[in-house]
Amino acid sequence: MNVKFTIVAAAAMAATILPAQVPNIPVAGNTNITISGLLAIGAKNSQISNSARPGMEAENYLGDNTSRLYFNSNSKIADGWSVIAQVGSRFEANNGPGTNLVPNANATPGTPFVGFTTGAYYGGWAEDDTWGGVSSPYGTVTFGKKTVFYSDTIEVGAIGLLNPGESYRVWDANELGTFNLMDYVMKYNNGVLSGSQGTLGLTRSQNVVNYTSPVLGPCMFVVNVSKNPYGSEYQYGASTPLNYENGGMINAKGIYNKGPISASLSFLDVKPQGGPSTGLGNTQAYRAGISYKDPMGFKVGVVFDHTAVSNAIVTTSNPNGSTASRDVFQIPVSYYLGNHGFYATYTHAGSYSGISNSSATQYNLQYDYAMTKRASVGLCGALLRNNSNTAYGPFLAGTNLGPSGVATGEYWRQISLDLMYWF
Does domain 2-196+282-422 have CATH number 3.30.565.10? Predict the structure, then answer.
C-alpha cells in the first residue's frame, strides 16, 4: 500500500514538471497513468426579470464552469486487452475546497444568509466519473460511477466527443439549454407548481455496470445498468423492506457519425429502489438528435427529448399523483471561420398535459475564439423565459441568485466572458 502511494505521489509531482506533450507517466511494468483535465471559469452578470423578490434581481460574480481533473490508468494484459481505471475529481477555480455553495433555504431574502443546506458541497475527490474495468477488442466493461443520459447530445469537439446537439468550444455551465430545459420535469399540486425533478435527480449515476462497444464502422453503442443509481442502498426505499429489491436503472444509447452527419438515440428507464412513494418518481425518457455539417463550417441540428415522471401531478381526487410528461426540442446552429466560432441555439419545453401556462423557452447566442486547439475564450449570452406556471432555472442555479434560484414565471438572463482549457 505504501509503495503504491509513493508511486502515485511521484507521478503527480512529475506531471507538474514534465513537458505538456508527454501524455503518459510509466508507473510499473506495463502500467501507465495519464493526468488530464479541464479548467473552465467565467466572469458573469446574471439577472432576473418579472420578479417580485427584493434584492434578488441581479448579481455579478465569478463562476466555475465544471472544472475537473482526471487520473487514468492502463495496464496491458495481452494484445488488445487492458485493465483500465479512472478517478475523476471536480474542483472549483473560483472557490476553496469544501466551500458550501447553497445558503440555507429558510433564509429571508434581503437578510444575511445564516447556516447552510446539508449536503450542498460541490466538487471533491472522485466526484466525477470514477470506475475500473477491462478494455478488449470486443468493447469495454467498467464498474463504478458514470455520467448517464443527462448530457446526451452535447458535443465536446476538443476531446473528440461528436454529437448532434449544443456544440460550443466554450460553454457557460449555467446556460446550457440541454441541462436547463431537457433535464427537468415540473411537479404540480392541483394545477399549481410545487417543485421540479431532474431526469435522474443527480448528475453522476452510481453502482453502474457499463458496456461501451468498439467503433463499428460509423456506429457505436453504450449500455448502462444500475440496481441503485442514487447511491446508498435503500435511500429511497418504501416504508417496509418488502420492496427492497424493486427498482433499478437501464440506459441504452446509439451514436452514428459519418461524413457530415451526426446522430444519436438514447433511452432511459429508472425506478427508484423500493418504489417511488417516498422518493423520486419512476422515470422514462428518450432523446434523439441529428445534425449536418457542411464543408464550409456551418452546422445545424435538431434534438428532441420526451421525459415522463410518475407521481408528479397531484390532485385532490388523485393524492398519489399521476404521470407528468413534457416534450422539448432544440435547434443548435454553429459556424466556424478559422479560429472564430459563432453559435445560436433555440430550446423550447412544451406544456404538460392538463397544466396551463407550463411551457418555457431559452435562447443562446455565443462567440468564441480558439487560442489553441484546446484553449478558447468566449462571450456567452442566454435568456430563459418561463411561462406563468413553470420555473425552469439555469443549471447549478443554487450557486447564484440566492437559495431558491428562479421562481415561477420569472425570466433569467446571463452574459459572461468565459475561458475553457482542456489539458
Answer: no
